[in-house]
Amino acid sequence: GVRRMRAFGTTIFAEMSALAVRHGAINLGQGFPDSDGPPEMLAAAAEALRTGQNQYPPGPGVPALRTAVAEHQRRFWGLEYDPDGEVLVTAGATEAIAATILGLCEAGDEVVCFEPYYDSYAASIALAGAVRRPVTLRPVAGDRRYGFDPAELRAAFGPRTRLVLLNSPHNPTGKVFTRAELTQIAELCQEHGAYAVTDEVYEHLVFSDAGDTHVPLATLPGMRERTVRISSAGKTFRCTGWKIGWASGPAALITAVTRVKQFLTYVNGGPFQPAVAVALGLPDSYYDELRTDLEARRDQLVAGLTDAGFGVLPSEGTYFVTTDITPLGGTDGMAFCRSLPERTGVVAVPTEVFYDDPEAGKRLVRFAFCKRAEIIDEAVRRLRA
Ligand code: PMP
Ligand code: GLN
């Protein structure tokens, strides 16, 4: 294979999910729910399949979905996007991220991102021939919420900075970036003439004890015009296999993203697009229940992991909680996760794979709590045994 992709082996999710199957273990590694999304959405997809909506959808996405995406952003975040030209439907957030980086970065351009980062970021940056400039998130003394050193962030920006890639709420840490932190990022973007690309796939999954609510970076002064805002249906509507995502932003940026997307997948998910449009229009009660249910699962897993002896770091949102294995005598998260399925019948993911410097995440292990209550109970029982 090509040199620029040589550092990338099999994704950690594929490796750990295969271990789960091999050992019949409970998979708290890869983040996917074990129950279906809203029945209205499933019915709409079935209807679309039955009524012949099975051919190529329009390039930018079906109008009903683009309209629903725009309306959803106005309703929850007060952001205005024109469904014609400022919204692009993609094959999940993953394609939106790849197409945005490929569409905006010249070879050698720099991308500022926070580590640990979602694994596709490094690969997309490498595909573009761009260079990543990671800023490390660390548990801060006191409440141990993750934070960054403002000086380290400032030092990551320079004359070659093309964009900052920000994920909040953040996978794998469960951190929700505060308005104060976002303001620092926004100021640096503007100072350096950089774009922002925001991965907000967990936008509706912020818990009641988080340090702040979810604040889209694009809502900060001067940011809408330089931000490509990305989200997807997978997490919000429990349909990770459908791979319906979207990018929103000023027309010139979305044109650049579309230029790439049309040659990656051309279009995707014809019958699922109108179904996601229906889901986006569900009443606030849907979103509230999604969040409160998930918060209860988080509390349940956090209590169980604490009982089992893990050092549990605060999770303010997403599907995930990070643990420190040091109190259990662990020193190597990768070795720990490779043997965990056989030892206990539970799968987790080593956080070190999400860092440029694996040492930084060496003793950290991520667990997913987007599972039914009885499954989490059983996982906890196994981990304590
Ligand atoms: N970004 C983050 C932070 C994620 O955790 C994930 C995985 N769910 C994705 C992007 C990919 O989303 P999608 O499945 O819509 O491609
Ligand atoms: N986003 C999910 C996670 O972080 C799964 C992504 C994947 O399997 N590529 O677990």
UniProtKB/TrEMBL annotation:
Keywords: Aminotransferase, Pyridoxal phosphate, Transferase
Cofactor(s) required for function per UniProt: pyridoxal 5'-phosphate
Domain (Aminotransferase class I/classII large): residue spans on this chain: 26-383
One GO CC term, this protein: cytoplasm
Keyword Cell wall biogenesis/degradation (UniProt): no
TM regions (residue ranges): none
GO molecular function: kynurenine-oxoglutarate transaminase activity; pyridoxal phosphate binding
Alphabetical list of InterPro entries matching this protein: Aminotransferase_I/II_large, Kynurenine-oxoglutarate_AT, PyrdxlP-dep_Trfase, PyrdxlP-dep_Trfase_major, PyrdxlP-dep_Trfase_small
Record family assignment: Belongs to the class-I pyridoxal-phosphate-dependent aminotransferase family.
Name this protein carries in UniProt: Aminotransferase
Organism: Phytohabitans flavus
